[in-house]
Amino acid sequence: MSDRKVCRWAALSLSNIASVFFPDLLGREQSSFEHKLVAVSSTKSQDAVKPWLNTQSVPNAESITIFSSWEQMLEKGDFDIVYISSPHSLHFQHVMKALSCNRSVLVEKPATMNAAQYEHCIDLATEKKLVLMEAMWTRYLPATQFLTNTLLPKVGPVRRVFADFSFPIVSPEMSHDSRFLDKGAGAGSLLDQGCYALTWADLALNSQAVGETKVLHSSSMSVPGVPGEVDDINTIILGQASATGIVTTSMTLPGSSQVPFYKRLQAKKQAPSVRIETEKATIAIPFPPIRPEEIQVTWYGSAETKDGLEVDEVFKKPIDGWGIWYQADVIASSVMGGHSEIIGADESLRILRWMDAARSLAGIRYPKELDSV
């Protein structure tokens, strides 16, 4: 019998990412907690939800309470943390309701449509003495932790970073009604993928010492042949006093869109997704940048070269499972420990403010009600 603490989860939305999160989390022997799904809310009937639970191999599925109303689940459910994975256009509404019901929250990224909305969430979570966390799971993976805690302190000041997250989410055959092409649901490459690419820029520029970072440039090209100007190819330039970052995204290229979604994330790419150039070394992160298991380093500082030539080194940092569960342990540790905190608040707000500025400069607009506070 396990002596680990049990952390009970509720799922607000049976989304595609929830279909990855819970199978990765539940029954995970490497976890510090025994995570259990105890409640779900869905607009689908119970007869439709039960096959979803079985498909995801959710343990003890018959004991899970199924709510037809997400409000009712938040008000009456018995659980420790609610995982919110609805479209990000709904996050502000869902998070604020959860917090008002005294629920600790793990919300998918981007946490909200803009920084002002998340600031309100943070204020309410602080007032209620709850735990709130954006699900930027990449920050908590072994390779990312090794980069920030071990590598970056050794390589000298960062001078330049290139961060890209581009792959064909959208195919020519995709219905224009898809969530990925619906501006009313917050669709667009910047919000869907830019949060990842900007996170790598933030890790490079700010993990050792936070400096003032400005969005110097932002431009965008829309998805071809799709009404509504859904942003696709985005270019953002960040600037600090002694460093710069170039961030790019696309949800139509490069690569084949003919294979299932998650196989597209396993494709081999010719160039690294992230390149961090410092005084002593260049650090490269291969595709996919959301789930790195390898870090490539080329050393060129005078103390690291061999006969004056660069020295290459590769660090392997394997992930158990898909890797989304690492972040779950972080928030569970806080909640089960009786703490009250906003995990990663500064980082989340920086990324949201950069995206706000990038949207403004590039003319990326959404219906006003999505951005309202």
TrEMBL record:
<dbReference type="InterPro" id="IPR000683">
    <property type="entry name" value="Gfo/Idh/MocA-like_OxRdtase_N"/>
</dbReference>
<dbReference type="InterPro" id="IPR050984">
    <property type="entry name" value="Gfo/Idh/MocA_domain"/>
</dbReference>
<comment type="similarity">
    <text>Belongs to the Gfo/Idh/MocA family.</text>
</comment>
<dbReference type="InterPro" id="IPR036291">
    <property type="entry name" value="NAD(P)-bd_dom_sf"/>
</dbReference>
<keyword id="KW-0560">Oxidoreductase</keyword>
<protein>
    <recommendedName>
        <fullName>D-xylose 1-dehydrogenase (NADP(+), D-xylono-1,5-lactone-forming)</fullName>
        <ecNumber>1.1.1.179</ecNumber>
    </recommendedName>
</protein>
<dbReference type="Pfam" id="PF01408">
    <property type="entry name" value="GFO_IDH_MocA"/>
</dbReference>
<feature type="domain" description="GFO/IDH/MocA-like oxidoreductase">
    <location>
        <begin position="155"/>
        <end position="257"/>
    </location>
</feature>
<dbReference type="InterPro" id="IPR055170">
    <property type="entry name" value="GFO_IDH_MocA-like_dom"/>
</dbReference>
<feature type="domain" description="Gfo/Idh/MocA-like oxidoreductase N-terminal">
    <location>
        <begin position="36"/>
        <end position="134"/>
    </location>
</feature>
<dbReference type="Pfam" id="PF22725">
    <property type="entry name" value="GFO_IDH_MocA_C3"/>
</dbReference>
